[in-house]
Amino acid sequence: MNQKKEWEPYEHKVQYYETDQMGIVHHSNYIRWFEEARTDYMEKMGMGYDQMEARGILSPVLSVEADYLQMVRFGETVTVETFIKEYNGIRLTVGYEVIDQKHQRTCCRGTTKHCFLDREGKFLSLKQACLECHQMFVQGLEDHQDTENHRDMEDRKE
Amino acid sequence: MNQKKEWEPYEHKVQYYETDQMGIVHHSNYIRWFEEARTDYMEKMGMGYDQMEARGILSPVLSVEADYLQMVRFGETVTVETFIKEYNGIRLTVGYEVIDQKHQRTCCRGTTKHCFLDREGKFLSLKQACLECHQMFVQGLEDHQDTENHRDMEDRKE
Amino acid sequence: MNQKKEWEPYEHKVQYYETDQMGIVHHSNYIRWFEEARTDYMEKMGMGYDQMEARGILSPVLSVEADYLQMVRFGETVTVETFIKEYNGIRLTVGYEVIDQKHQRTCCRGTTKHCFLDREGKFLSLKQACLECHQMFVQGLEDHQDTENHRDMEDRKE
Amino acid sequence: MNQKKEWEPYEHKVQYYETDQMGIVHHSNYIRWFEEARTDYMEKMGMGYDQMEARGILSPVLSVEADYLQMVRFGETVTVETFIKEYNGIRLTVGYEVIDQKHQRTCCRGTTKHCFLDREGKFLSLKQACLECHQMFVQGLEDHQDTENHRDMEDRKE
């Protein structure tokens, strides 16, 4: 098993154009923050989404889920933690946790599911199409499982 | 039981700025289409969201889910069907079906969940805060259940 | 000289997600409305932008200008009038007037400038690349000049 | 005359959702980048736009202009330089220069014009409404004029 990579999670400063007349961030923007964080994650893991596309691999979103727990406002900065929840070489599930930096509260939790396609729209096995990409998500999945196991153990101690 | 209202579902013409470099509509836009369709639905039901806000009632999104089934492209027009899936006076679940007009295929299915707040952010019982709004969603729920029952009966006949 | 085509100008219903915390439509959205109106105009003139792209012609925006005269709010519907201000086969200037339907006031005036490129990014003479496209903009320019002349004559009468 | 403040200009990483099917950043997004850069500038100058709004001062956009010089693509990062071009206590003109970090080319130049309003929509003299805000823009204007003068002198030497 490889060493888990450690890095700073993605930061997003709330923009004025992201607010709506309720005075809070419009809910559709979190879906875009997930994408920002996912892109940042891949880049930090060593294979940016732009590089993956340059190799002819597209990764469309099959589904998205978001639970909004706390409102976020202009002037605040959020951290978006990203983790690989499921990956089998064909399908990928990415999880997100949006944390308001000021109050250190989880504002939003979400997931996106993805597949991998070539430019003609045919399904790809990522392992065959790009071993480096494949290993990145395998590593990401392991990292996440380690974190989860570690949490379980901490919980049992209590 | 009231008569089910019949109307044209919401139509949205895909805009160029909604596409991304994959050549398809970016997934975050469907979340906005859900809002467009929900707003249109309320207006056709007799109580626009602008009127509801004018009465001091906010209806933030608690969660959103979307399943992307078919890609949608610039030049196409979609129909978004909207239906009240759950409503208990405190919480509301709205369902959406995005249908590509050309191929008559369901491109996306989704739901949004909502609560009702006053301007200070306190939870409201919609029945008490605005009877007219309450009745609209009760009616919408009945309409949806009728449609579901009707579908069940059709299925049994076959 | 051909007969000026008459049609309904483009209508846009203001969406909740287009508002910001000032309680008005965020100014960046008008730039998108210009595009919506330009696309609609081309379609009504007989050559949708999707069809033009299908012929291998791209029409990027070289510059944009917008003057905001009145605030627009959620619940309102605007009309966007579109007219061909300049066209020489190589460059195109499109003008827009956003009119609030309720008060019949001009809320925003703007222009966008465009060139024409092939898929490799080389400049095109539209006359050579697509005669039908060329004639559409020539016709649009004539229509606009007629309207301007007509206005001038009306002004002199007074 | 105060010392010109030196700081890092605003950086924006191009997001996938900002691209369109032409494979480049959609032109409407630069208008949002201007806002991001303006907000960042104010914050670095010591008075964030959120703080200004908290004092009851709104600063709507009266006009916007953008000239697109080079296409920007996903995977690139741009720097947005911001400078106070005109300021008289009542009106403000802000200039922007978007520079592609990789090629160090100016991709877009733009300006936005602003006034200052109270919550009821009445025009404000910023000097009276918020001396601190006023001084920030006076300082910004001086900084910009110094830079311009410096450039002129450099040009004459050549």
Characterization of this structure:
Four copies of one chain form a homotetramer. With 158 residues, chain A is an alpha+beta fold. Helices cover 35% and strands 28% of the residues of chain A. The first copy, chain A, has four helices and five strands. The first copy, chain A, has helices at residues 28-45, 49-54, 126-129, 131-157, and strands at 10-13, 61-68, 77-87, 91-100, 105-115. Chain A has a five-stranded antiparallel sheet. In chain A, strand 4 (91-100) and strand 5 form a beta hairpin. The longest helix of chain A has 27 residues, at 131-157. The mean pLDDT of chain A is 94. Chains in contact: A-B, A-C, A-D, B-C, B-D, C-D. Chains A and B meet through helix 1 and strand 2 of A and helix 1 and strand 2 of B.
